[in-house]
Amino acid sequence: MKELNHLSEVFGAYDTFVIDLWGVMHDGIKLNDKAIEAVAQLKIKSKKIVFLSNAPRPSAKVVDFLLKMKMDKHYLSNVMTSGEAAMQAINQNKFGKNFFHLGPSRDASIFEKVKKNKTTIDSCDFILCTGLFDEDDPDLDKPKLHENNLDYYKNFLIKHISKKLVCTNPDLIVHRGNREEYCAGYIAKIFEELGGKVIYYGKPHKEIYGMCFDQEEKVLAIGDNLRTDIKGANNLNKDCLFISDGVHRNEFNNKLELEKLFYKYKVKANYFQKELQW
């Protein structure tokens, strides 16, 4: 694994750059200026750029979010999200008709076209998980929750283990600025550990990549998550660049520890950078 000082050292070997958003292009609060400059240079070089995110929302909603962060709209012609892929399946009643939404109300756009099919946990065909509940959701019979209280979800899910759970974001955690937040993937992990069946949409699962590029394209995948971004590239035998100052930044202190971390997650990368820069 080679440490890159500059993306410009290797960009010529690739046609397509599949780039993660949260943890690479932004931290949930602000854009990464160096990463934006790298994308600008790739655009100038007429490279294909695909932003692939495990956001549990339709692609259009993520584009809106990025525009509000002042990302140039010319960079956003190819954006695909795990939420978009899941939404297409939900709209086709792939898992049944009626669903229970486990997640915050801000993710409601994912089921906008079938919102009439939203129902209770007892009468649903499947559980649609986009994340953790809103703490102050008035429609839910539950105690006031702290965001990191996972015991509630274990106790809640064990009663409904016979249901299918559709996970729209396989990530376990993200960093919003300097704060860690649990994602839908953590709830799905709990559900699986309890013995439940989970259907995943997003990285590292192969299906979503088919919506982004053809297999014969020379692709460099760029991301900060070993479980999703890097594992996904490995699954497709595509080259990848690991961004080390992301979700795993507190798990290692030097290159030797980083190599051990790769061994722990059973992944490999061609390159790594602290942050994406041209």
Describe the structure.
The chain has 2 domains: 2-54 and 204-273, Rossmann fold (3-Layer(aba) Sandwich); 84-200, 3-Layer(aba) Sandwich (Rossmann fold), CATH 3.40.50. It is 27% helix and 19% strand. The protein has helices spanning 33-44, 59-68, 82-91, 151-157, 184-193, 206-209, 226-235, 255-265; strands at residues 2-3, 16-19, 48-53, 79-81, 99-102, 126-129, 164-167, 173-176, 179-182, 197-200, 219-223, 239-243, 271-273. The model has no long low-confidence stretch (mean pLDDT 93).
A few lines on this structure:
The chain is α/β, with parallel strands linked by helices.
Give the SSE map.
Layout: E1 2-3, E2 16-19, H1 33-44, E3 48-53, H2 59-68, E4 79-81, H3 82-91, E5 99-102, E6 126-129, H4 151-157, E7 164-167, E8 173-176, E9 179-182, H5 184-193, E10 197-200, H6 206-209, E11 219-223, H7 226-235, E12 239-243, H8 255-265, E13 271-273
Parallel strand pairs: 1-13, 2-3, 2-11, 3-4, 5-6, 6-7, 7-10, 11-12, 12-13
Antiparallel strand pairs: 8-9
